[in-house]
Design brief:
alpha+beta, Sulfite Oxidase, Chain A, domain 2, 2 domains, 5-stranded mixed beta sheet, 5-stranded antiparallel beta sheet, 7 helices, about 15% helix, globular
């Protein structure tokens, strides 16, 4: 049975306007940071591979493919500067997005809304020590997030011993790096909206596997809010808006979603339009993710997913009725 969480269990430091919401601003950042550090500690010492395993591109694709290092080196290469601690290196390799695109994501015929269907796609990168990092392809795509990831083969002109190595040049630290990458598994968020005719202020249902949590409009309005001034390219040109609402990761935490670098979240509008994002985009990618409740001073009938920093507004999902979440490839 769907149920709404009780925010009053969180706390001690009162939030203005609602003493029942306590300690929220302090406990949530701690949980998010703990998740990031736990994943960062999973790296193992470097070693030289005796036998090349190859790189498999599989999952929800029409053309599963396996590449040797030589085959990857024969593909178009991209060079980027990556910051490691207090110094920089130059990495060269293949864009993660291009490998996913070449494998042709297999969109099911059952999709009810196929506009910008690329924004449904995720890529889970697996490597040494069971490391897994999941990306929303919308984050990587130059038309939307414009925050590419690279499967690097060389560093400062020399072959990487534990390559291919996943690097994300624009990240604030190497927490999403994966060594000795052996697999990229593609997923597609296909779940449909549970309410296609919501009345104003209808709840948002958060679905994470077998767990469903219903967040009422009143509950969302009691959460700590932030104000974002955003701009993006829309159908009629550049749009600028002021958005007010709680951060997406905080909403997820209240619904029981612990953010890791392998987590994905799909926002679903009442028209079955879908876009995926990941906590990693905000934790180290610097992109603020928000559930907007008020736009330009006007209360929205239903919340809107906001992805501050995107080039185009395709991941700004209006009329959100569902947030689906999971780990690994989206489904």
């Amino acid at each position: 049975m769907a149920r709404e969480p009780r925010p009053k269990r969180l706390g001690a430091t009162s939030v203005q306007g609602d003493p029942g919401l306590t300690r929220a601003r302090h406990s949530i950042p701690v949980l998010i940071t703990a998740s990031a550090l736990a994943l960062a500690s999973a790296t193992l010492p470097a070693y030289a591979r005796e036998n090349e395993r190859g790189l498999a591109i599989d999952g929800a694709v029409s053309t599963p493919t396996s590449y040797s290092t030589a085959q990857l080196a024969a593909l178009p290469q991209t060079t980027a500067t990556v910051t490691l601690g207090n110094h920089q290196v130059t990495d060269t390799g293949v864009l993660l997005e291009s490998l996913v695109t070449a494998a042709n994501p297999a969109y099911p015929a059952s999709l009810l809304n196929t506009k910008n269907e690329l924004l449904r796609v995720t890529a889970t990168v697996r490597g040494r020590g069971n490391q897994e990092v999941t990306f929303a392809i919308g984050e990587l795509d130059s038309n939307f997030g414009n925050h590419p990831a690279l499967l690097a083969l060389t560093q400062n002109g020399r072959p990487i011993d534990d390559g291919p190595q996943l690097v994300v040049p624009g990240d604030r630290g190497p927490l999403r790096s994966v060594s000795d990458v052996s697999e990229v598994s593609v997923g597609i968020a296909t779940a449909a909206a549970t309410n296609t005719t919501p009345s104003a202020g209808s709840p948002v249902m958060v679905i994470n596997g077998n767990r469903t949590v219903t967040l009422s409009s009143a509950f969302l309005n009691r959460l700590p809010k932030e104000t974002l001034d955003v701009s993006f390219i829309g159908p009629g040109g550049t749009q600028s808006h002021t958005e007010v609402g709680p951060p997406l990761l905080e909403v997820g935490l209240f619904a029981g979603i612990l953010p890791t670098f392998n987590t994905w979240i799909a926002a679903v509008g009442s028209d079955n339009y879908v876009a995926t994002v990941t906590p990693g985009e905000q934790l180290v990618g610097g992109r603020q993710l928000q559930v907007s409740l008020v736009e330009d001073g006007v209360t929205l009938a239903q919340p809107r997913l906001v992805t501050d920093g995107d080039v185009k507004g395709g991941r700004y999902v209006s009329g959100v009725v569902n947030l689906y979440a999971g780990s690994g490839p989206a489904r």
